[in-house]
Amino acid sequence: MDASGGYLARIGRLIELQARLRRERRAIAAAALSVRIESLLRRWIGAQRPSRSLSA
Predict the structure, then answer these.
(1) What domain range is 38 assigned to?
(2) pLDDT grade, residue 7 (50/70/90)?
(3) Is the pTM of this model over 0.70?
(4) What is the maximal distance between C-alpha atoms in the chain?
(5) From CA 36, how far away is CA 54, in angstroms rounded?
(6) Which residues make Cβ contacts (< 8 Å) with residue 8, sequence separation at least 6?
(7) 17-43: per-residue pLDDT in tens?
């Protein structure tokens, strides 16, 4: 599995956990997990962009 697939699988598991926390009415934990998911998504998106140093 490439790094991209690894990130997406990890994000998917975190989203499932977040949904469970929301069902259990654990809003603070779900909100904290939301921050973690956003961070991972930003890192994954950044990894998908071509390096700018090559075009300079």
Answers:
(1) 3-48
(2) confident
(3) no
(4) 51
(5) 30
(6) 44
(7) 999 999 999 999 999 999 999 999 998
